[in-house]
Amino acid sequence: MRISTSQYFGMNVQTMDDQQATLAQLYQQLSSGVSLATPSDNPVGAAQAVQLSMQGTTLSQYASNQNTALASLQAEDSSLSSISGVLTAINTQLVRAGDGSLNNGDRGSIATELQGLRNQLMGLANGTDASGNYLYAGYQASTPPFSVDAAGAVQYSGDNGVQFVQVTSSRSIATGETGNAVFRSISAAGSSPVGAGSASNTGSGVLGNVSVTNTASPTNQHKFQIDFTSSTTYTITDVTAGTPAGPAQTFAAGQAISLGGESVTISGAPNGGDSFTVTPAAQSSTDVFANLDSVIAALQTPATSASGQANLTNALGTALTQMQNTLNNVTTIQTSVGGREQEIEALQAVTQSNSLQTQSNLADLTQTNLTKVISQYTMTQYSLQAAQQGFSMIQKLSLFDYIGG
Predict the structure, then answer these.
(1) Are 160 and 261 members of one domain?
(2) Same domain, 156 and 241
(3) Does residue 131 form part of some domain?
(4) Sign of dihedral through CA atoms 374, 375, 378, 379?
(5) Is 361 among the domain residues?
(6) What is the rounded CA–CA span in Å between residue 350 and residue 151?
(7) What CA–CA distance (Å, rounded) separates 70 from 62?
(8) Of 101, 199, 291, 392, whose CB has the highest number of CB atoms within 10 Å?
(9) How far apart are CA 271 and CA 204, in angstroms?
(10) What is the pLDDT of residues 166-209, one digit of tens each?
(11) What keyword terms does UniProt attach to this protein (predicted)?
(12) Is 263 helix (H, G, I), strand (E, B) or coil?
């Protein structure tokens, strides 16, 4: 195969043009710091870069969502701690009110203190997060969830919607609880049956704490009523089943009265017509504000007789159990909130690690490796200079230089 002078010149010029183009491309990478400026630079790498960029954007959004969810949960956690503190203070006052040495004026003062604690609880129930959203309003986050009606009763105007935030591709986390869940419900675990005496009792009978004698008994979820037909005889009715729970029995003060899988004692001297109830926690009144209003009213009622003192003692015992159930519910919710906080913090660490790895992979594809590119630039520059020098020497040669020597 013969190569003409024009072909030879053309090949050398093309080679030097290619080397100059390579030098220009490498110089552009060095000056800009970007090795993948257009898809044509590396089509496969460009596709990977688009995918990594989308992944980075998604991870960034998840990180933002995690920060938002964590802030909401931390605000709720702080609020629940304050609520627990108020409920504990209420319980302390209820125990104090049971001191038999107090007079009606003393109990009236305690009622006033309880009213103040109720107002504190109301303020916490209408608490907001850093964004001004009401913590316990459900989806109605821009409206106060609790208000007082004309009769002085607390009403809930929020809903039962629970806000969720997507924190990973496969995990959404609840960022709050409703007012019903916190202030008008109780936890199934750890709550106690609620004993109560009728406010119309005329005797001095006082209902004691309910003891569970058989945790497996299905009747533990039944409501029972103890009715005194005389001062010495009583009957028990399974209100839930709607049937008598055995024949009439003889009363002895302080003796255990069996109620299926539970038992209770009554001290003092009940009169005929007096009645007492034992209600499963979930079936009793679980509205903390209504329960507080009830015991405040009982404390404001002068106890001027043995029956009045007994009714007050029964009301205090009922309120103490109700408040303890509410406190148990708040503690259970706070434990759940703390668990979600820990989960988000763990997810934040994972998301940050994935984001850093994605950024590193994207940088490897799109950013200039200075050491590598400088080396390539230097080698290409040397090659171009050698080609230019060689071509310059060869093009000066002529056949006449070898004739007539």
Answers:
(1) no
(2) no
(3) yes
(4) negative
(5) no
(6) 53
(7) 12
(8) 291
(9) 8
(10) 999 899 999 999 999 999 999 988 899 999 999 999 999 999 99
(11) Cell projection, Cilium, Flagellum
(12) strand
